[in-house]
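Proteins fold reproducibly. Look at a concrete instance:
___
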Amino acid sequence: MKLIGSKTSPYVRKVRVLIAEKNIACEFVEENAWAADTKVPQFNPLNKVPALVLDDGESIYDSGVIAEYLDTLPGASFIPKDARSRALVRRDEALGDGISDAGITMRLEGQREAARQDAAWIARQRSKVEAGIAAVSKSVGSRRGAATTLGDIACACSLFWLEFRFPEIRWRDDPVLKAWAENLEKRPSFATTKPG
């Protein structure tokens, strides 16, 4: 298998962490979807990363779809089988991905020339990020000591991306999130996938 993606993408990192946690043999091929000569559309017609290329050449794309596929492979499972527990983990994955979506939208809008930026749009995305961070703290706080799930991985990758791109968003000031994040950062899967 080959994973096509960028080291700075929180969605790619989510998949890379899962691959490392499950000890799956997978080649990482770094590609910039924004580059004029990008090869990403060969693997995902939407020109988005990550894309997972299977041994038979078939591509799977969207980080949630890839994560669900990887979880079925041998090794530890990060998505529960029980319907309610599964839904809650997938909800937390959607929360992490949603924080990333809003953060990336904020970043892209902020990269436009100042006269063309929409301050209200940036503020709306910022409010989603802040509400998402509060929801992660509540979820993490209610599950202290529980096994790490795909939801945890997605939320952590999102918050670590925020820290990388928006250091002024000081989510580590929340002691619950700080302790949780520091615990995850000790895992080799997070240490080896850190962007930068």
